[in-house]
């Protein structure tokens, strides 16, 4: 590493402890503590992001003792896979610290699984013998770190639509909850609702107490704040403040007030109908339930973008050489629905739309034919064409 890279790495290592213990590291020793898993995002100087995955637990012992945190930093988003690794770490930690190191060494020696693939790790545990641990990476990397179930456990479908409306227009949103796992899962889920677009602004799934001043930033953000810090954020104006407590008496809101009217009414109704389908998957096992709910929810919001801006591919013109050019005015005028046009006019002013188009202009024409978003656009246009021919 160059000198500046080493300095940046040292800063990152210091930052990790802030995110693993956002309450601060001066903990009173405990006799009971339920282990919890949560994640956070570290933004580098060049704007790139790395994911932090953390398991906090109380090691086995007698009397009061402080909790420990185990953390994995990765450029890959694999919450489920890393969570399973933490299960194995925790199981070994309750026997002996010495059992963690050989397991981690085996992990380092194994190649990271490709999407949809599984790796096997052999690990010895006294009294249990040699175990074979299977670590599977999901096929669809887009939803690898997402669990929409938590989001819909905390909020109604209508509240999720309000949050989506505020996020899609890049507003300031703060989520409040007691549990670190709830905050991290909900923030990652909200960011995933924006696919194929990417949140470009400040994203901190759990704000450490020492960094709480970030709530005063005038720029857009998605922040997760523990409930004990609520008094420090309620005096902010022009933001959406969402309480995720499952048994809440009220949802705290300080809002601009137009979240109900941002999205076209007809498309709002379509999303709500699509979301209602997830209630049919309540009787399956947990892993399958998460997978199916993720599919239903992601497709509902993906279809929204197909309906509103899916015609963008027809308005990027490529010359023989050089980047493509997006014909913004023609793209906008091609929208027939007044309510959709009103929404798209606002959406076109966001940084996430602007960057999406910039990346598109840099691609070769063949690049347009790739990805799930383009596939959904093609399916929708085919259905629309068949419907037109019938009439």
From TrEMBL:
The keyword Magnesium does not apply. Residues 1-367 form the UDENN domain. SMART domains: dDENN, DENN, uDENN. Signal peptide: none annotated. The keyword Glycoprotein does not apply. It comes from the Eukaryota. Gene3D superfamilies: 3.30.450.200, 3.40.50.11500. InterPro entries: cDENN_dom, dDENN_dom, DENN_C, DENN_domain_containing_2, Tripartite_DENN, uDENN_dom. Keywords: Guanine-nucleotide releasing factor. It holds the Pfam family dDENN. This is UDENN domain-containing protein. It comes from Characodon lateralis.
């Amino acid at each position: 590493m160059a000198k500046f890279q080493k300095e940046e790495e040292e800063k990152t290592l210091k930052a990790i402890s802030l995110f693993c213990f956002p309450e601060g590291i001066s903990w009173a020793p405990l006799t009971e503590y339920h282990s919890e898993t949560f994640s956070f995002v570290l933004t580098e100087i060049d704007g790139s992001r790395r994911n932090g995955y953390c398991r906090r637990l109380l090691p086995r012992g007698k009397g009061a003792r402080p909790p420990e945190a185990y953390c994995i930093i990765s450029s890959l988003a694999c919450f489920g896979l890393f969570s399973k690794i933490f299960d194995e770490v925790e199981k070994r930690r309750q026997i002996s610290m010495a059992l963690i190191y050989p397991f981690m060494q085996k992990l380092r020696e194994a190649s990271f699984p490709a999407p949809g693939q599984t790796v096997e790790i052999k690990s010895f545990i006294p009294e249990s013998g040699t175990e074979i641990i299977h670590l599977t990476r999901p096929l669809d990397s887009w939803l690898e770190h997402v669990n929409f179930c938590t989001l819909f456990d905390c909020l109604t479908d209508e509240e999720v639509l309000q949050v989506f409306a505020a996020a899609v227009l890049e507003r300031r949103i703060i989520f409040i909850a007691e549990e670190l796992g709830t905050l991290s899962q909900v923030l990652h889920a909200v960011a995933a609702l924006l696919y194929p677009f990417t949140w470009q602004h400040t994203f901190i799934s759990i704000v450490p107490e020492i960094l709480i001043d970030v709530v005063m930033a005038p720029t857009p953000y998605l922040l997760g704040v523990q409930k004990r810090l609520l008094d420090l954020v309620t005096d902010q104006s022009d933001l959406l403040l969402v309480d995720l407590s499952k048994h809440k008496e009220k949802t705290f809101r300080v809002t601009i007030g137009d979240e109900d009217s941002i999205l076209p009414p007809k498309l709002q109704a379509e999303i709500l109908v699509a979301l209602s389908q997830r209630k049919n998957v309540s009787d399956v096992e947990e892993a399958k339930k998460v997978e199916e709910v993720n599919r239903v929810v992601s497709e509902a919001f993906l279809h929204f973008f197909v309906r509103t801006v899916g015609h963008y591919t027809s308005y990027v013109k490529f010359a023989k050489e050089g980047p493509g050019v997006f014909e913004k005015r023609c793209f906008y005028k091609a929208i027939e629905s007044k309510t959709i046009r009103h929404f798209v006019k606002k959406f076109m002013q966001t940084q996430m739309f602007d960057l999406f188009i910039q990346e598109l202009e840099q691609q070769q024409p063949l690049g347009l034919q790739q990805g799930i978003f383009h596939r959904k656009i093609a399916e929708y246009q085919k259905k629309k064409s068949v419907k037109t021919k019938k009439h």
